[in-house]
Amino acid sequence: MTENTDREDDGNPKFGRLLVVLLGAVVFCVVLTWVMGVFFPNFPNI
Asked: Membrane spanning segments where (predicted)?
């Protein structure tokens, strides 16, 4: 088998990238919750 030496992947997980994605998802949920609370305060009763 030939070893792929073009990549610098050592097999360790990319925790930095995962952390950025998770923080982005949390910020998105916070913004969505704030928008729903401000612009649609009584959403189920519309």
From this structure: 20-40
